[in-house]
Specification:
Arc Repressor Mutant, subunit A, homodimer, Tetracycline Repressor, domain 2, elongated, 2 domains
């Protein structure tokens, strides 16, 4: 039986959805890195990944879907790094671990930051596309506010404003680092100063 | 003599550079409002302004130049509103007056905010284009740090980090308001909380 099976050739491999998704995600980020996400087309991604346009269209058919796919990819990469972070235990350390993942402090995060700002610009004129981003943002803001609350003693800002402030701060800092207006060390020092304010009892 | 001059017709009106620039600026912002700045072409602007493509090209010949023109227009509008602001005398009030002009709290500022975030996204992949933005940012940061210093007693953050923080905060908040993640009142309350931290002696 085994021999017969072998003669029929290998059982067709099931499509590995995750593998293909990763292949396309990497290709999309590579093209975005050189062209800027706004100028990337479905065809560029197919060419970069070495697959057919039809295969790409299985994952995203329109520019809107491609932008959401790119955002998902970035979110997944941030989450994976967070899961690997051993130091995130106390409230302040947990919030810091999240926020430094959003700062463009190395090439990977710079690329992700460019994708994020491109998505923000794209979504700013298209309320429908912004929905996916709203979920992510609301989730992160709630998580930060929860940690500020957990830290106990009231800080200089109430937890909601502290959370909105820290997340906005990091997104603004990311833009400034990407544009070369602020160097990464100064951005990190500015973040740490604000974390102190949010987590130090007054 | 006067009669003779009249018979020669009116003296050809000198091209009003400022008027034309304003006409094109308004057209550019109107098209950007509906399409998103990234998808605007020189031809769209010419059609919207009711002028020839050649006239538009006198002001910007390439997409890069159009983006810089758009940023200049936004900066000029912000400056004009600041010049009209009567309340900006004390250091904290001056900084607040500047920063609220960068928050999308009405339709005009929302449109300018969309232009600004589109410019950030565009510039993030094109270092050469970012130069103009860097000047503006450095100027605003220095102005804020100067006011924090002038306020006298040391606040919770040193002036440089306070300035970087406030400007980044407002740019992040602007993105969150534009994306519908944060409502304008919460954004303003978050800004005021951070102004208190920067300007209140510890």
């Amino acid at each position: 039986m085994r021999v017969q099976c072998d003669r029929l050739g290998p059982v067709p491999k099931l499509v590995d959805h995750h593998e293909r998704r990763t292949l396309l995600a990497d290709a999309l980020l590579r093209v975005a890195a050189t062209r800027g996400l706004m100028d990337v087309s479905l065809r560029h991604v197919a060419a970069e990944a070495g697959v057919t346009a039809g295969m790409v269209q299985h994952y995203f058919r329109t520019k809107d879907e491609m932008m959401v796919f790119a955002l998902d990819v970035v979110a997944a990469r941030v989450q994976a790094r967070l899961d690997d972070d051993p130091e995130a235990d106390a409230p302040r350390a947990r919030v810091r671990a999240l926020l430094v993942q959003l700062l463009p402090l190395d090439d990977d995060r710079a690329l992700e930051g460019r994708v994020a700002v491109a998505f923000h610009a794209y979504a700013a004129a298209r309320p429908a596309v912004a929905a996916r981003l709203r979920e992510d943002t609301a989730g992160m803001r709630a998580a930060i506010a929860e940690q500020v609350r957990r830290a106990g003693a009231p800080g200089a800002l109430d937890p909601e404003r502290a959370a909105t402030g820290l997340l906005s701060l990091v997104e603004g800092l990311a833009i400034h680092v990407l544009g070369g207006h602020v160097d990464p060390d100064h951005a990190l020092a500015t973040l740490d100063g604000h974390l102190d304010l949010a987590f130090t009892p007054v």
